[in-house]
Amino acid sequence: xxxxxxxxxxxxxxxxxxxxxxxxxxxMEALADVQRAGATLAATLGSHARIxxxxxxxxxxxxxxxxxxxxxxxxxxxxxxxxxEDVVNAASLDAALGQLRHAVRIARDHFAKEEQVLxxxxxxxLAADELDRxxxxxxxxxxxxxxxNLTRPA
Length: 154
Ligand SMILES: [Fe+2]
What we know:
By secondary structure, the protein is an all-alpha fold. The longest helix is centred in the N-terminal third of the chain and has 34 residues, at 31-64. It is 86% helix and 0% strand. Bound molecules: fe (ii) ion (FE2). The site of fe (ii) ion has 6 residues, from α2, α3 and α4. Residues 49, 52, 73, 77, 110, 114 line the site of fe (ii) ion.
């Protein structure tokens, strides 16, 4: 499976998490509730961003260079991570809620840029077998098994 397809699939799961968290905001009455939601987002979005930073972006760097769109995407990953750290470290319920809403908003904007621009660039710049090879790296990273173990019985 191509890396761009699997990353879109991860976005789908993360959109479901965004919706779940946003729907729960009116019921968050304690700072700890908001901090838990922020920590859940930090863990899931953080692992998704690492996959992009370590598997997809290096494959695009020979053509795009380290600056330009890859710099923007990496900076946005850092911005999302920092916003979620602010949720977890917030001193008041209101501050935490404001940061949580901000973090989800910038994560959604970032996903839209990847879907509308970056993933399309990747599909144009990388050959189909390279996109598949990166997809296999994703599988190995995600499940720790590797495709060999998934497709061939021992
Ligand atoms: Fe990203």
